[in-house]
Amino acid sequence: MITEYLRFRTTPSFSSDPSLFAKLREGARAAGIVNQSYGIGVEDKEVLHWIIQFDQGFGPKDFVWDEAKYGDFTKEVMKIAQEPPQSVFMHFDDDDKEPFSKEVTDAPVTELAAIELKEDLSKEEASKTLNDIRSILRKAKNGKGACWGADNDKPKNVYLFVGWESIEDHVAFTKTDSFKEVQGMMKNIISGVKMGHVAFSDHVQQ
Fold first, then answer.
1. Which Gene3D superfamilies does the entry mention (predicted)?
2. Model-level pTM?
3. What is the pLDDT of residues 42-59, one digit of tens each?
């Protein structure tokens, strides 16, 4: 299964006319996308985060947008975006759960970390360490699941999603020994990281 993650800085039209983004979500649904989640950043309230799941037996190359009904996708997006969206396609690999843990975006708040892996790090070492980190995060008090995926085009770019009951619960976790363990493992594999929180909602078909 492939997951697309889009983010972009919104224009005032995004808030003043909710129908503009609703039209884009409905167009994706009409093209066969059943599961999509979206939310505004907690720390940066101008940035929209949009997750699209290709989990219905077809991939991005098979995606057909109905331009006659929903307009040119790029032009419609630019009605609510200050710049073209950043788009990443990822595979989420997990042996014991669904590839993208839905509980993560169902949580009241989702921690999203954009990670740059060290250039000399092997794929095997990165996967093992990230899986170990994921296991610890899934056991965190008031945590609501964790999953990670690598950019299909730039595999050194990894995205970690962690669900929490609240930002306060995330902060409380950073004071635990488990977090120190995660920190130690992270230092061994990353060259940079950007983090934030998002309160996601699911698209509901009208």
1. 3.30.70.100
2. 0.93
3. 999 999 999 999 988 899
* C-alpha dihedral, 172 to 9 to 38 to 110, nearest 10°: -10
End-to-end CA distance of the chain: 26
Cβ-based neighbour number of residue 92 at 10 Å: 19
Residue 55: predicted pLDDT: 87
SS3 129: helix
Confidence bin at 86 (pLDDT 50/70/90): very high
E strand segments, the chain: 2-9, 36-40, 47-54, 86-91, 109-117, 143-151, 157-164, 190-198, 201-202
Q: Mean pLDDT score of the chain, rounded to an integer?
A: 94
- Torsion angle of C-alpha atoms 146, 26, 6, 53, degrees rounded to 10: 40
Distances from the Cα of 122 to the Cα of 111, 118, 190, angstroms: 26, 9, 12
> Residue 99's pLDDT is what?
66
Contact 46, 9 (CB under 8 A): yes
pLDDT tens, residue by residue, 191-201? 999 999 999 99
Domain spans, the chain: 2-90, 94-198
- For domain 94-198, the question of CATH label 3.90.1580.10 is answered with no
